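step=encode ok
step=design start
structure_in=
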């Protein structure tokens, strides 16, 4: 048979071979490329962190909120975004439909990826060489919001697809929509539809109508482009009462607010558009006011949303036309209670971070949880009391000799804290006047020297705990420096002579406080102490240690010990009896310390947080005040009765007001740099401090702080029934020291025998005076009888004495190391 192979055309052989080879190459390339892609994809899947879609709630960023004692929102803690969770059932159906219509019309049909949309997007992106159309479904966008990032890359897209299948497997479509609608960004720092509704329309999301739903749904595609409003500078021609005001934070390098802006801010304040604290922050160059203007571009997007909803049968033609013709009104919602400063919530934030750290969070984790964890923080703040406190302390009539410092802060400044001594709740707190908190100094937490206001809690409380009584007798006069090496002085050189502890405290005797403090360690029944003007057997170290222990037990944390700071030392009589401490005590701790006396001798740490709930409603912290007995109810009542005397007829008379019993103590430091009044009624304990930030001398003393205290507490008690301090059992009355005094059962007054010193000295003084008078009379008679010669002799002697008096004295003065001269 003849072979015909050689008869085939050579060109045909070559062409078919080439085709086969090309097909093999293409197939190989596809296999290799597929394997490579598969390898890359599998690598991406392998590197992707493991997720649990069922725990999506914990992944949602949500703004934490602070509430008052009656459940009112005080402040939303916004760092860079505002978010508030809302359950699916509270989201309007129109809003759900609008989101689905514009973002993912086949959402209820696919399993996480819409391949039809993917194909169209690929074709478009290849033509335009861009990533303009990502073909992301709502599920893929949720994966991006919760688990990946906003970067445009193939790797992120693949990861989103991978997570989408897991999400669809674990969650229902309603749960996916709930998670998405609470995690999507809606511009202006808002995350989630609830935040958007409150920000743009000042409404709960459930109250949105169709037009508003469509407008919000259109924002998510390009938030900054389709944002419902933009901001513009306020013009002189604007009707300030009818504009939507937005307060923007100032950057550090921006120009200071001009006089024109300050004037506009003042007008806005008068019209009620901004509150006093907003005005203060504008004046302090922290905020700038602008106006919100409706963004017409957002309405173009809204029309598209409504068109899609109509085309997909989600709304009727009538609904479509009505929404299309509705005028959109922007109404900027507030994120905090107006009319109060942030001083209280500043303290709440610090305490919340401390609580979270004690629960095991790092500082960074605690801070993130505080601002983005959706915590509900409940406080004991009484909003009405807080407003009252802020209104009173802001009145300039209570501060004279004022000025504005180089930072633009008005001086003198003030701090005040009000505590319910029975519950230990901090009901109100301010850390300054004409300032609003935030980045500014919170003077309620800043230690300042307490002056004589320390005496009740350091000297007299400790003394009563160590056997002293209100009727113990001491000599209130300047002490011999040669005996003690130093000599405390009373203000105005006023001394009472022999008197009781009650009177020493009433008149704020510095000499008396020193002697009583020294006697804390003394045996008051020992003869060596009873039979001398000043006690001779005592232990300074023990007395000082006991006062320090008392102060620490009632929350004072700023005592400086030499072992901790070799330069400064508060373990001495001057700091502990007269308040000249290295740092001092903060108004917060001073108010807390006095609650131990006001609360029948029991103390617990004052608190500003009652409860913290997680974003799912779980209680992660509940306050549990742990009271401890600092002194007996009898001692607390006796000290209260003594402090009532301070207000009735002592240095604190300016604090008295009708309708309530008042007990308290003034305090003034050297050169009047700090003035205090810390006191209480049967209802509340309140501290008031006034001073200049840079420690300049004040133009007034503690009578002014007592007066300010009265104005605060009179307003706070306006609607409260008249009440008296309850006397406990175990109190008896005895005539002592020239008056009827109260004592705890089992105690008696000490050193009452020393009154005999006073009487004897008075008798001796009278006898000496009588003898001197008799001698003078005899001398006068002798002079009259001796004639002119003797008169001339006396005249000459007198002349010599006058000459000698002009010569410098040879007697050397003793050096003195004086304890701080307290002004009270």
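sequence_out=
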């Amino acid at each position: 048979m003849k072979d015909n192979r050689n008869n085939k055309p050579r060109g045909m052989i070559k062409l078919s071979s080439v085709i086969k080879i090309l097909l093999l190459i293409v197939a190989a390339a596809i296999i290799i490329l597929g394997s490579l892609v598969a390898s890359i994809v599998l690598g991406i899947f392998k590197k992707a962190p493991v997720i649990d879609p069922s725990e999506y709630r914990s992944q949602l960023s949500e703004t934490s909120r602070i509430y008052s004692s009656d459940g009112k929102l005080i402040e939303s803690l916004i760092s860079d975004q505002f978010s508030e969770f809302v359950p699916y059932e509270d989201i309007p159906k129109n809003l759900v439909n609008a989101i689905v219509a514009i973002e993912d019309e086949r959402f209820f049909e696919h399993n996480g990826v819409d391949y039809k949309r993917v194909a169209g997007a690929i074709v478009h992106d290849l033509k335009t060489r861009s990533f303009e159309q990502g073909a992301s479904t709502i599920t893929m966008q949720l994966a991006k919001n919760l688990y990946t990032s906003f970067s445009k890359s193939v790797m992120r897209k693949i990861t989103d697809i991978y997570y989408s299948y897991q999400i669809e497997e674990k969650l229902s479509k309603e749960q996916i929509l709930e998670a998405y609608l609470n995690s999507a960004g809606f511009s202006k720092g808002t995350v989630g539809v609830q935040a958007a509704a409150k920000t743009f329309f000042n409404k709960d999301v459930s109250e949105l109508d169709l037009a508003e739903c469509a407008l919000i749904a259109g924002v998510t595609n390009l938030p900054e482009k389709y944002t419902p409003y933009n901001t513009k500078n306020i013009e002189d021609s604007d009707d300030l009462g009818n504009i939507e005001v937005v307060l923007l934070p100032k950057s550090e390098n921006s120009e200071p607010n001009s006089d024109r802006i300050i004037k506009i801010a003042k007008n806005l304040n008068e019209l009620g558009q901004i509150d006093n604290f907003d005005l203060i922050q504008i004046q302090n160059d922290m905020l700038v006011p602008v106006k919100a203007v409706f963004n017409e571009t957002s309405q173009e997007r809204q029309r598209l949303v409504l068109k899609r909803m109509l085309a997909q049968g989600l709304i009727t033609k009538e609904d479509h036309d009505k929404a299309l013709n509705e005028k959109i009104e922007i109404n900027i919602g507030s994120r905090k209670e107006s009319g109060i400063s942030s001083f209280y919530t500043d303290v709440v934030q610090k305490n919340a971070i401390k609580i979270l750290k004690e629960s095991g969070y790092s500082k960074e984790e605690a801070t993130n949880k505080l601002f983005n964890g959706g915590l509900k923080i409940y406080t004991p703040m009484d909003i009405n009391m807080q407003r009252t406190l802020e209104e009173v302390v802001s009145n300039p009539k209570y501060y004279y000799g004022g000025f504005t410092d180089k930072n633009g802060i008005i001086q003198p400044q003030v701090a005040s804290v009000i505590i319910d001594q029975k519950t230990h709740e901090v009901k109100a707190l301010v850390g300054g006047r004409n300032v609003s908190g935030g980045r500014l100094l919170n003077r309620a937490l800043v230690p300042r020297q307490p002056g004589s206001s320390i005496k009740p809690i350091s000297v007299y409380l400790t003394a009563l705990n160590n056997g002293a009584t209100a009727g113990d007798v001491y000599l209130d006069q300047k002490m011999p420096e040669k005996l003690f090496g130093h000599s405390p002085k009373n203000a105005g050189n006023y001394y009472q002579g022999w008197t009781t502890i009650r009177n020493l405290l009433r008149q704020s005797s510095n000499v008396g406080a020193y002697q009583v403090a020294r006697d804390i360690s003394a045996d008051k029944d020992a003869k060596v102490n009873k039979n001398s003007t000043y006690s001779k057997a005592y232990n300074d170290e023990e007395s000082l240690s006991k006062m320090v222990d008392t102060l620490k037990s009632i929350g004072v944390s700023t005592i400086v010990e030499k072992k901790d700071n070799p330069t400064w030392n508060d373990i001495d009589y001057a700091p502990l009896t007269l308040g000249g401490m290295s740092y001092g005590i903060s108004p917060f701790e001073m108010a807390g310390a006095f609650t131990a006396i006001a609360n029948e001798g029991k103390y617990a740490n004052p608190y500003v947080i009652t409860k913290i709930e997680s974003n799912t409603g779980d209680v992660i912290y509940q306050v549990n005040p742990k009271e401890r007995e600092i002194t007996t109810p009898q001692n607390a009542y006796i000290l209260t009765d003594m402090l009532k005397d301070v207000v009735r007829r002592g240095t604190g008379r300016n604090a008295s007001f009708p309708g309530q019993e008042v007990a308290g103590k003034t305090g003034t430091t050297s050169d009047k740099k700090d003035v205090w009044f810390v006191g209480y009624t049967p209802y509340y304990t309140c501290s008031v401090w006034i001073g200049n930030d840079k420690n300049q001398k004040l133009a007034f003393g503690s009578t002014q702080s007592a007066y300010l205290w009265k104005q605060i507490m009179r307003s706070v008690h306006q609607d409260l029934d008249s009440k008296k301090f309850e006397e406990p059992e175990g109190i008896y009355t005895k005539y002592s020291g020239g008056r009827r005094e109260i004592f705890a059962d089992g105690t008696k007054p000490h050193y009452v025998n020393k009154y005999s010193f006073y009487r004897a000295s008075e008798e001796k003084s009278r006898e000496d005076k009588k003898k001197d008078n008799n001698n003078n009379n005899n001398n006068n008679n002798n002079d009259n009888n001796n004639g002119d010669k003797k008169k001339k002799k006396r005249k000459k002697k007198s002349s010599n004495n006058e000459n000698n008096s002009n010569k410098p004295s040879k007697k050397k003065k003793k050096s003195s190391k004086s304890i701080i001269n307290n002004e009270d």
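step=design ok
step=annotate ok -> The two ends are 139 Å apart (CA to CA).
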